[in-house]
């Protein structure tokens, strides 16, 4: 489950692209806190601490605004620079203990499919409805021993207590197949064996 982390924030009073660039140049991150019908709050977060906190999927974040106000939140949208390893902006959703929210949770595969096969992960994450203060970091799905043609869907994943799927239970998550090269080699080998047998029969016929 996600740990509760505290980030010290300051209120943002100036806006515009130029000011946002200055915030990021100062190793900070602009963010907005919203939810429960309250007015959105624009804040500035510490860059390094925030990036470290967001390494944990669905981390529960306590935002301490200038020591005057604390908001319990989860990150709903993290905008990253397409080139540089920096966060451009964060949308934070306020949550309360006991309420449920919809989140995307990564799928973690365990085990190995049958020898000679490969697994294809069709959906690397799933949306679930879970208690805000008990969000899972990932969902575990075993593929151990799965054969060619086998598949597993969203309903095959065991969810944490109190959670439920927010997607179609029949949504394909993973399926097992044989690599195309291996599949093509088998018929080719069979044709080679037939040709060899034909040649042998021809040789024997010539002797007669």
Automatic annotation (TrEMBL):
Entry annotated with the keyword rRNA-binding: yes
Region annotated Disordered, chain positions: 180-208
CDD domains recorded: Ribosomal_L25_TL5_CTC
Annotated keywords: Ribonucleoprotein, Ribosomal protein, RNA-binding, rRNA-binding
Residue stretches making up the Large ribosomal subunit protein bL25 L25 domain: 7-92
GO MF term list: 5S rRNA binding; structural constituent of ribosome
Pfam families, per the entry: Ribosomal_L25p, Ribosomal_TL5_C
The keyword RNA-binding is assigned to this record: yes
Record Gene3D superfamilies: Ribosomal protein L25, beta domain, Ribosomal Protein L25, Chain P
GO cellular component, one term: cytosolic large ribosomal subunit
Annotated GO biological process: translation
Comp. bias regions, Acidic residues: 184-208
InterPro entries: Rbsml_bL25/Gln-tRNA_synth_N, Ribosomal_bL25/Gln-tRNA_synth, Ribosomal_bL25_b-dom, Ribosomal_bL25_C, Ribosomal_bL25_long, Ribosomal_L25_dom, Ribosomal_uL5_bac-type
UniProt function note: This is one of the proteins that binds to the 5S RNA in the ribosome where it forms part of the central protuberance.
Sequence similarity: Belongs to the bacterial ribosomal protein bL25 family. CTC subfamily.
Subunit structure: Part of the 50S ribosomal subunit; part of the 5S rRNA/L5/L18/L25 subcomplex. Contacts the 5S rRNA. Binds to the 5S rRNA independently of L5 and L18.
Entry protein name: Large ribosomal subunit protein bL25
Organism: Demequina activiva
């Amino acid at each position: 489950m996600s740990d509760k982390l505290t980030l010290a924030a300051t209120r943002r009073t100036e806006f515009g692209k130029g000011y946002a660039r200055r915030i990021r140049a100062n190793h900070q991150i602009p963010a907005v806190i919203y939810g429960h019908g309250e007015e959105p709050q624009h804040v500035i977060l510490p860059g390094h601490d925030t990036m470290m906190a967001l390494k944990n999927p669905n981390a529960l974040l306590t935002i301490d605004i200038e020591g005057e106000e604390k908001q319990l939140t989860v990150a709903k949208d993290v905008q990253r620079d397409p080139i540089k390893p920096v966060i451009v902006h964060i949308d934070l959703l306020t949550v309360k203990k006991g309420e449920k929210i919809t989140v995307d949770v990564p799928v973690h595969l365990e085990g190995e499919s049958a020898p000679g096969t490969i697994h294809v992960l069709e959906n690397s994450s799933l949306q679930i409805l879970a208690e805000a203060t008990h969000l899972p970091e990932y969902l575990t799905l075993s593929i151990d021993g799965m054969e060619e043609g086998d598949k597993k869907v969203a309903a095959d994943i065991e969810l944490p207590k109190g959670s439920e799927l927010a997607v179609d239970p029949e949504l394909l998550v993973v399926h097992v197949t044989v690599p195309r090269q291996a599949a093509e080699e088998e018929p080719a080998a069979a044709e080679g064996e037939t040709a060899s047998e034909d040649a042998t029969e021809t040789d024997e016929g010539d002797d007669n």
